[in-house]
Design a protein that fits this description.
This protein is α+β, with helices and mostly antiparallel strands and 158 residues long. The chain has one domain. It is built from two helices and nine strands; from the N terminus they run H-E-E-H-E-E-E-E-E-E-E. The strands form two sheets. The chain has a five-stranded mixed beta sheet, covered by helices on one side. A four-stranded antiparallel beta sheet has the order 4-5-6-7, with no helix packed on it. The chain is globular.
């Protein structure tokens, strides 16, 4: 019996030396996730069927895209445009002329594609993919006889 006890203690102490580093590693705090940020151009455009104004003329491409998708809007007016820094931590806000505040949050940035969460309260919360070229159009509610559209693009897409 005397010989078994020291052997058992030796085995336990050896096991403890192997287990201790594993437990210590499990309790160590994980490194902080890298905070990602992205510059996004955000335009607020009022589209309607009242008139045929396209202002500024750069919105002609948007009008053609909408016509191809069978959206019969005839008037396109840019109400505002701004460059926002959108990050993973705190959402960037866009105040809309209809009194609503939309928010944008970066979900992930992978290669040349960013995935953004676009939240328009009481209307929609969608995830959209934004590349270096082109634009994403997101409905943002009704306003003075038309619809507000958020136009999201990369600064390089200008």
């Amino acid at each position: 019996m005397m010989t078994r006890t020291p052997v058992a203690l030796l085995v336990l102490s050896l096991l403890g030396s192997f287990l201790l580093p594993t437990q210590a590693r499990a309790q160590a705090p994980a490194p902080a996730a890298k905070v990602q940020k992205l510059q996004v151009e955000v335009a607020v455009v009022l589209v309607s069927r009242n008139g045929s104004e396209v202002s500024p003329p750069e919105l002609q491409k948007m009008k053609e895209t909408f016509q191809k998708q069978n959206f019969n809007f005839t008037s396109f007016k840019r109400l505002s445009q701004q460059s926002l820094e959108v990050g993973t931590q705190v959402p960037a806000e866009v105040k809309l002329p209809n009194g609503v505040t939309a928010s944008l949050r970066l979900l992930r940035l992978q290669g040349d594609t960013a995935t953004l969460r676009v939240d328009v309260p009481q209307l929609s919360a969608v995830d959209v993919e934004l590349g270096r070229e082109g634009a994403v159009y997101q409905r943002a509610g009704k306003h003075v006889g038309g619809e507000l559209i958020l136009v999201l693009s990369s600064p390089a897409a200008k």
